[in-house]
Amino acid sequence: MGSYQQQILKGASAVELVVALYDGILRFLYAAADAVDRNDESGRRAAVKRALDIILHLQARLRMDVGGRSAQALSDFYAAIFAQILQASQSASRTKFLHAIDCVRNVRDAWRQAALDPAANAATMRSPVAQQMPPLAETNADTAAGRTWSA
Questions:
Q1: What tens-digit pLDDT sequence spans the chain (151 residues)?
Q2: What is the residue extent of each domain of the chain?
Q3: I want to staple 48 with a disulfide (CB 3.0 to 4.6 A). Which of 62, 94, 138, 151 is the partner?
Q4: What is the torsion angle, in degrees rounded to the nearest 10, for the CA atoms of residue 3, residue 105, residue 124 and residue 51?
Q5: Which CATH topology does 13-131 take?
Q6: HSE-CB for 7 with a 13 A CA cutoff
């Protein structure tokens, strides 16, 4: 990631960081769909792993004790989209990837609307959860510990 992008993210609110993570999911899902068109299995798998890594990161950051029903709804969404992406990858289906992209984009657009609300951004900046959100490490998915699933 370029230093310009890093500087932008340093000044972002917690909600804006979530939007950036969703943008990453979308970027990797488009890459996976394009890899399907090229019959590039390793490219598809790499892109899918990156998208799934972000989803796992978002899932792990949910605070059920704070978020209540909203956090549970997001948890359910992450589980469903995770399964949908795996299915799209296993069947090498561009159509299924595009459906997953639509679903992720819908939720991302809701987060983007929340990012425009000054009250939502102020609340997340005061939240200890916002201060705990480390960046998603850009590591080689094959060497990262704890990866037992296959895209």
A1: 566 455 555 666 888 889 999 999 999 999 999 999 999 999 999 999 999 999 999 999 999 998 899 999 999 999 999 999 999 999 999 999 999 999 999 999 999 998 887 776 555 544 444 444 444 443 333 333 333 444 4
A2: 13-131
A3: 151
A4: -60
A5: Four Helix Bundle (Hemerythrin (Met), subunit A) (1.20.120)
A6: 3
